[in-house]
Amino acid sequence: MASMLIQHKVKDFVEWKKVFDSAIGLRTSSGELSAQVFRDASDPNSITTINKWDSLENAQKFAHSPELKAAMEKAGVAGAPSVYFLNEA
């Protein structure tokens, strides 16, 4: 199973979470199976998500999609995210 780990800062977690939650249909139609959201213990606007995907190819395609870029801008992501693609060992 493929996973995608994304780390980034946001301007406001509550606003970011609203956009993240509203994009579930976009993510699942792209092959996402599940998503977990974590907040840094010392900086609540520093976010890590771990998303499981049906394939590495779909995860990579979604990560480079204009729809994701637009959603991140709308959600108030500050700066470029760090994105990692992972295969379960």
What is the annotated CATH architecture? 2-Layer Sandwich
- By oligomeric state, this entry counts as single chain
CATH topology: Alpha-Beta Plaits
β-strand amount: 35-45%
Largest sheet: 4 strands, antiparallel
Overall pLDDT level: 96
Low-confidence stretches: none
Whole-number tally of structural domains = 1
Number of strands: 4
Terminal CA distance: 9 Å
Question: Could you characterize what this model shows?
Answer:
The protein has 89 residues and is an alpha+beta fold. The protein has one domain (2-87): Alpha-Beta Plaits (2-Layer Sandwich), CATH 3.30.70. The protein is 38% helix and 40% strand. The protein is built from four helices and four strands. It has a four-stranded antiparallel sheet. The longest helix has 10 residues, at 13-22. It is globular, with a radius of gyration of 12 Å.
List the helices and strands and how they pair.
Elements: E1 2-10, H1 13-22, H2 24-29, E2 32-39, E3 46-53, H3 56-63, H4 66-75, E4 77-87
Antiparallel strand pairs: 1-3, 1-4, 2-3
Short recap of the structure:
The protein has helices at residues 13-22, 24-29, 56-63, 66-75; strands at residues 2-10, 32-39, 46-53, 77-87. It is α+β, with helices and mostly antiparallel strands and 89 residues long. A 4-stranded antiparallel β-sheet has the order 2-3-1-4.
